[in-house]
Write a structure and sequence with these properties.
The protein has two domains: 274 residues, Zn peptidases (Aminopeptidase); 154 residues, Alpha-Beta Plaits. It is built from 15 helices and 17 strands. The mean pLDDT is 93. The longest helix is centred in the N-terminal third of the chain and has 23 residues. The chain is an alpha/beta fold. The protein is globular. Helix content is 37%, strand content 22%. The site of zinc ion has 5 residues, from loops.
Length: 488
């Protein structure tokens, strides 16, 4: 009985302490950062973006199937719309159609910065053309949105960077550090053998260039509102991206006619292998950036949510357990396993001599292709499996959150809108930025455009469009970012 009272007493004390701690679990807003106004010609931007969308720069794994005329047209379009960029910066065509512009800084001893964007877009899925509210390559501007393929991924970003450079040059700005604009031509073609970004990075390395920072697509500004509990713009800056590795696992067996089958055919044995692999997932761990994210969200939440999140470190096992059950959340905390392709015998009455399955792993930073192989061997009880490595890309390096570039993005973005909450995060897909690791340690994936989940889901899909209301701030952000990063 006495023990019960002691437990109740301690619990009560814990609750009281939590309630008090939650009052002070609040972030002090840095209200001192005042941003200089930046001149932005929104009307020109909208016209340029709309026209850029009309040029069908569709990439393809097979370079023979690319309409290179469209890329030529796009280059001519850039030349016509951004004359000062073309006059002041040197332009180099790398590979088939990638572009590098260089604005020489006044102090050659300082490392330059690179602004990345890709020129290419994905095609329209056959049969969905008529589902679009406005033609996919119309660039239609209805006053609220600009519509079309590339409106979000990522001609919006590319034109914003060009617009901002044109303005900075017009205003007579002179950077101390060099500014590189690097425009790849086949980002959307995963694992293209002639990857433009890779060629650009090699070109820069050959020139002896080392970069202070790289800024590419990846994150966005996502409004999150939960009644009175939370009202923030989650501003995710991708500091790393997951790797993607494909393995094929096969089981061999005697073939023969299906009229005289053994108890388990090769496919039957393979079923056990699949079960072993799916039931033995990689361990989930909470990376530091996620801890930071939860803490900051907590400190900016309403009181009831703060009461919960002030104890986030204690609740971590519970948070992880919940995240593991939600696929989208699980992908943030562990290497994911997806069994995707399978093959058995070529005909319904033939016993398979071999049955195979292909598994796609999305690796967390720190998990290597070799680790995946070891993981498969450890997980599968059947030791007679054949394991074949198909293709793979290692996860990226983890860029620091105390670099000049990260701090600049955070400061500018949060000063621009007090709701913006900049936190590091992990990018699920592949970006061009990954290829710049040989020339840079501070690589960030962030597009300063506000977009809700509904709009983000239109990327690569039907009705891709960008709200005009978020464009002015985005261009201003780029201008300030370049000024800040290159003034010393
Ligand atoms: Zn993209």
């Amino acid at each position: 009985m006495k023990i019960l009272w002691i437990i109740l007493g301690l619990l009560g004390l814990f609750i009281v302490i939590t309630l008090i701690r939650a009052i002070f679990f609040k972030e002090k807003k840095n209200g001192n950062v005042k941003l200089e106004p930046e001149k932005v010609n929104l009307e020109k931007y909208c016209k340029d973006l709309s026209d850029a969308i009309q040029i069908k720069t569709i990439s393809n794994y097979d370079r023979e199937l690319v309409d290179w005329n469209e890329f030529d047209k796009f280059h001519a379009f850039l030349e016509e719309r951004f004359p000062l960029v073309h006059k002041t910066m040197s332009k180099t065509v790398v590979g088939d159609a990638s572009l590098v512009f260089e604005w020489k800084g006044s102090d050659e001893s300082l490392d330059g910065i690179a602004m990345l964007a890709h020129q290419d877009v994905v095609p329209i899925t056959a049969g969905t053309e008529n589902d679009w509210e406005h033609e996919p390559f119309s660039g239609y501007n209805d006053g609220e949105f600009i519509w079309g393929r590339g409106a979000m991924d990522m001609k919006n970003h590319l034109i914003a960077v060009m617009e901002c450079m044109e303005e900075l040059i017009a205003e007579g700005y002179q950077p101390k550090r060099s500014v590189f604009i690097c425009l790849g031509h086949n980002e959307e073609v995963v694992a293209a053998p002639d990857n433009g970004a890779k060629q650009i990075a090699a070109y820069l390395k050959d020139k002896g260039v080392h970069l202070e920072a790289v800024l590419d697509e990846g994150g966005a500004i996502l409004p999150v509102k939960l009644g009175k509990l939370l009202d923030i713009n989650l501003t995710g800056v991708g500091i790393a991206e997951k790797g993607s590795v494909n393995y094929k696992v096969s089981v061999n067996a005697k073939g023969g006619h299906s009229s005289q089958p053994p108890k388990h055919t090769a496919v039957g044995k393979l079923a056990d292998v699949i079960k072993d692999i799916e039931n033995h997932q990689f361990k989930a761990t909470m990376p530091d950036y996620l801890k930071q994210l939860i803490k900051r969200v907590g400190m900016n939440a309403g009181y009831p949510l703060r009461v919960v999140l002030v104890n986030a470190p204690i609740l971590r096992p519970l948070i992880l357990a919940i995240m593991k059950r939600i696929p989208a959340a699980a992908s943030l905390v562990r290497t994911c396993t997806a069994v995707t392709m399978a093959e058995g015998s070529p005909q319904f009455n033939i016993l398979p001599q071999k049955a195979s399955v292909t598994i796609n792993f999305r690796t967390m930073p720190g998990v290597t292709i070799k680790d995946v192989e070891n993981h498969i061997r450890d997980s599968v009880k059947n030791k007679d499996i054949e394991l074949e490595f198909l293709t793979g890309k290692e996860s990226s390096i983890l860029s620091p959150t105390d670099s000049k570039a990260f701090k600049t993005i955070k400061e500018l973005s949060e000063a621009q809108n007090s709701k913006n909450l900049v936190t590091p995060f992990l990018v699920m897909g592949a970006t061009d930025a990954y290829n710049y690791e040989p020339v840079c340690e501070n690589i960030y994936r962030f597009a300063p455009f506000v977009a809700d989940t509904k709009l983000l889901l239109c990327t690569h899909g039907t009705n891709e469009r960008i709200p005009i209301s978020c464009c002015e701030d985005a261009i201003a952000f780029f201008k300030r970012y370049i000024r800040r990063m290159t003034k010393d």
